[in-house]
Amino acid sequence: MRTRGGILAANIIAGLALGYTVANIGFGDYGELNRMFTFQELRMFLAFAGAVAIIVVVFAALRVRRTPGRLHAGVIPGAILFGGGWAISGGCPAIPIVQVASGYLPALVTIAGIVVGIRLCRWANMRYFHLDSGSCER
């Protein structure tokens, strides 16, 4: 039987395992991420490419099909902002948490930026854009 506590415990264990793995393979290291985004080192790109290749094989084996839908109006600008923020800060939303846990305190600025960005997205969506409810995580 799935209980709230059991699911929470499983999520905590999975999160700790992921954070440990990310920190130990270097994905939480700002310098490593910077070298990837400035094309000085291809190790992380190859790791990402390997992950994509694995999931493609798994999806093909499981016959997962994505039904094409309407492209959300905020996808392109959101992707540009997300990628730019990742390149500048050295981390997608999960990586700064790993960085802080590893003792890299400047990642707190990145976490604050994520929180401010989400709040600005909500505000701009309500005031100006009126995009569907799938935007600006709740």
Automatic annotation (TrEMBL):
The chain crosses the membrane at residues 7-27, 42-62, 74-98, 104-121. InterPro entries: Sulf_transp_TsuA/YedE. Keywords: Membrane, Transmembrane, Transmembrane helix. It comes from the Bacteria. It comes from Micromonospora chaiyaphumensis. It holds the Pfam family Sulf_transp. This is Uncharacterized protein.
